[in-house]
Amino acid sequence: MEKIELTCIGCPLGCSLTIQKDHDEVVSVTGNTCPRGDAYARKEVTNPTRIVTSSVRVEGGTAPVVSCKTASDIPKSMIFDVTEALKNVKLTAPVAIGDVVLENVCQTGVNIVATKEVQCL
To answer: What is the pLDDT of residues 43-55, one digit of tens each?
Structure first.
């Protein structure tokens, strides 16, 4: 039996979680004060995912770059692949919040979307 300790990031409380895991199966989660802690712990030790934030270049805009993020979480193991895919992306102004920067990034089924607006020069 494996014991894993984590700090929950599901809400501002930051509960100290203890997870008991038998091979690939979560046996118990303790220390959480809300159901989100239990769900976070189970997901984190079996299939961790993350939202990736970054920026991409913009040509002809009032800013040289625009911030962006994954529209939903992706497998943690894909973070570096996603950031590498964004290195060669260039947008042309104008860019609006929510515009798709890169579709189906690294075949994850998740789009990268702009999180800021950039106007034309």
So the answer is: 999 999 999 999 9
112: left (phi over 0), alpha (psi -120 to 50) or beta: beta
Q: Is the Cα dihedral 59, 65, 66, 68 positive or negative? A: positive
- pTM for this structure? 0.84
Rg (CA), the chain: 18
Digit-coded pLDDT (tens) for 62-113: 999 999 999 999 999 999 999 999 999 999 999 999 999 999 999 999 999 9
How many Å apart are CA 76 and CA 43, to the nearest integer? 11
Quick one: three-class SS letters along the chain? CEEEEEECCCCCCCCEEEEEEECCEEEEEECCCCHHHHHHHHHHHHCCEECCEEEEEEECECCCEEEEEECCCEEHHHHHHHHHHHCCCEEECCECCCCEEECCHHHCCCCEEECCCECEC
Question: Are the C-beta atoms of 19 and 41 separated by less than 8 Å?
Answer: yes
